[in-house]
Each structure stands twice: as C-alpha cells, then as structure tokens.
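Tokens as discussed.
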C-alpha cells in the first residue's frame, strides 16, 4: 500500500537537519507511514552511515575524499527530496539501497582497473574454500607484468597506467572457469589487483588441473599477442609480457578445509606468487603451475609443471627445478 506525505509531514521551511540522528528523529515523528516501514528506513540510514565510516578507515585518502564529496552531495539531495517531494516509503528505501550498493562496489574495487581489491578477493576466496561442496578442482593464479618499471621509466606513468588497465581487462576477459570461447565470465570467477603491477584470479570450477593451466596459458598468449601499439606507438617494438604462476587445488571433503579456510587461502596465493617469481627469475616463456591437495588441514603439493610455447632456454630450467612434493603452511 502506498503511503504519501501530507503537508503536515514536511519539515518547516526554516528547519535544518544537521545530523543523521535528527533525520531519523524527523522520520519517526513526522513521516506518515506504518512504524515497521519507518524503522526499515531508519535502519537503512544507519547502515549507510556505518558503511561510510568503514570506508573512511579502509580506503586510500584520495578515494575517501572523492567518495565523501560525492556522498555529501547525495545526502544533501536526499534531504531536499524528503522535504520538497511527496515520496513513498518504498521509493525512499530503494533510493538508499542504491546508494549503499554503489558505495559497497566502490569500496571493494580498485579504482584504476575496476577489478576487485586484494582484501575483498581474499575474503571471497576464503568463503569459497569454507563452503564449496560441488566442485572438484579450482585454480588460483598470480600475474606480474614483466619489467613493468622499465615501461614506466622509459615511456612515462601514463603509458604504464594504460598497460595496467589493458592487462586487467585481458585478465577479466580470458581467465574463466567455463567454456574458453564464452563471451561473459562466470559470475563466480574472481579477478583482482594484487597491488602495483600484480594481479590475482580464482577459477572456482574446473574439470581438471590441465584446464586451469590452459586458461592461464591462454591469458598469457593474449597479452603477448595484443597489438600494444594501440596503447602507445612506442610499444610496437617493446611488446608487453606477463609472468604467471598458478596453483590447481583438488578440494576434497569440505570438513578438511572449513576450519582452516583462512590459512589455506593465504597458502595457495603465497605458493602461486612463488611460482610466478620462479617464472620471472628464470626468464620463462611459460606458465609455472603446481597441483596441490589438502591433507589434515594443510596444503600439500603433489606436482610442479610448466605449460606454454616451446622455448629452448627452458631446458636448463626444467633440469634445475623438476617436480617437487612438499607441504606449505
């Protein structure tokens, strides 16, 4: 049922709502609506301000300043609408939900690449390990742009930013659990900016570890075959490459990982990071990847391999590293 404000519900012309407490009090005292609906609106206000306070504590300074400036304008417009218009309680609640959703999305995403930020990625990965029962294999990868500092130093930070943004876009487009030819990523595939020129991703539903390595290899090829002169003509002679490390994890029974999901998530990402640096140090043209499983609450590696295009400089690296089996905390 739609409830409309009567003239008596509006605030006097000289009223000034200086705080959220006053706004909540005004809603309770003057808004004509059932009490449950008024309380829902008040709860939405409180949740909104709680999220804003969290944002101040966790965001970078420039992001916080931009968000708070935008939020101040939104709050001012909202107060004007509450006083000047006859809005229904349903419309007001939906308006607040939209603001909360927008702030939440900005809080959880890197502003430059629009990928998830690393903290939120780890939260989602941990939740996946603690609850997923349907899939057998997943894969987590870490990506680093090869010699990124050289690009920044020689071509400038603007070109460096374009490289980061393009690699992020290719990562989101090319690393997917499901059909490699699909146009849209699975809603549960996760892609994040690790920090600087590093990225991480989760493929949560794989039929085999080989599929995970194939996805990572496909992404690496797309980066290295991309026409980089589109971003900066000087890149025609200096194409961008990436180093990739990936851990393909056999999930096993849920009981073995539910209580240690946080430690497992950190161990998997740390091992993928090590594999990425192994590829970087060896000057590898291949993805470095390992298979692992969970035994007694611990991450246990069951194989280390490389995939990718043949390259003769890999022969010495193959003999040096080989396959290993070890336990990682």
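Sequence:
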């Amino acid at each position: 049922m739609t409830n409309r404000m009567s003239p008596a519900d509006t605030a006097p012309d000289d009223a000034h709502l200086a705080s959220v407490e006053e706004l909540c009090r005004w809603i309770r005292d003057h808004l004509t609506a059932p009490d449950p609906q008024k309380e829902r609106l008040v709860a939405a206000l409180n949740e909104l301000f709680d999220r804003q306070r969290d944002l101040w504590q966790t965001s970078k300074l420039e992001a916080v300043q931009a968000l708070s400036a935008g939020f101040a304008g939104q709050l001012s417009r909202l107060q004007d609408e509450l006083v000047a218009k006859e809005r229904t309680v349903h419309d007001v609640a939906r308006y607040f939900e939209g603001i909360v959703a927008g702030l939440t999305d900005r809080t959880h995403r890197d502003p430059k690449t629009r990928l998830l930020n690393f903290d939120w990625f780890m939260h989602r990965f941990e939740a996946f390990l603690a609850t997923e029962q349907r899939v057998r294999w997943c894969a987590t990868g870490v990506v680093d742009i090869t010699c990124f500092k050289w690009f920044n130093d020689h071509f400038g930070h603007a070109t460096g930013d374009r490289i980061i943004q393009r690699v992020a876009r290719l990562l989101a487009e090319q690393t997917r659990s499901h059909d490699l030819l699909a146009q849209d990523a699975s809603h549960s595939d996760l892609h994040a900016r690790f920090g600087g020129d590093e990225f991480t991703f989760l493929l949560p539903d794989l039929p085999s570890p080989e599929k995970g390595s194939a996805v990572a290899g496909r992404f690496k090829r797309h980066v290295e075959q991309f026409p980089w002169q589109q971003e900066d003509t000087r890149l025609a002679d200096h194409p961008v490459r990436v180093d990739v490390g990936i851990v393909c994890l056999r999930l096993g029974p849920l009981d073995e990982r539910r209580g240690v999901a946080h430690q497992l998530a950190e161990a998997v990402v740390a091992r993928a990071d090590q594999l990425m640096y192994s590829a970087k140090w060896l000057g590898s043209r291949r993805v470095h990847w390992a298979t692992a499983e969970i035994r007694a609450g611990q991450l246990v590696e069951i194989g280390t391999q490389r995939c990718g295009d043949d390259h003769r400089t890999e022969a010495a690296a193959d003999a040096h590293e080989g396959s290993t089996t070890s336990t990682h905390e």
